[in-house]
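tl;dr need the bound structure. longer version: we got a ligand (adenosine-5'-diphosphate) that a collaborator sent over and nobodys looked at where it sits. i said id run it. heres the input, straight from their email, havent touched it
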Amino acid sequence: MSEKNETSTRIELIKGDITQLSVDAIVNAANESLRTGGGVCGAIHSAAGPELEKECLTLGGCKTGDAKITKGYKLPAKWVIHAVGPIWHGGDRREDELLAGCYRNSLKLAEKHNIKTIAFPSISTGIYGFPIERAVKIAIREVKNFLEENTSVEKVAFVCFSKRDYNHYIEVLYNN
Ligand code: ADP
């Protein structure tokens, strides 16, 4: 099997609710204050219980493009990696670079904490308004680049809440 194919088999696409997944870590599409919010962030905090926000508030916030890690509390996942995606302002405020940073920094934390399986939602493409096609290309490129260099992370899942998002991932993952 070629190296390229080996990397592809470590990427999985799931349609569903990220809070239900039994993986080592789920990634939260967080905000800079690391407080609970709407969208996937609200769903993760409500499934994890109030201890999650308590720990988050000890971390001193998180810069856009960066990520911080906490325990998963009542979630099936042991860890939550809180990545702060950029708010879309039209594309000339380093949004691409900042979104790429979320994936890179989350994966670096995964490596550091010996996380073998990790699931990402589609960061920034909900309330933050990042165009989905553009975000999916960045997400897949960064995960593939990381997996080519790293062997400690075994599986990376992209979790889509809607069929529409799922189809965008299919398009980029399998039709290129
Ligand atoms: P952001 O503020 O970074 O845009 P959102 O939470 O608004 O974050 O949206 C990010 C993505 O997460 C969207 O594609 C949204 O459909 C998706 N999403 C919302 N709830 C869940 C969930 N429970 N599991 C997985 N994805 C979810």
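gonna send this back to them w/ a short note. The longest strand covers residues 25-30.
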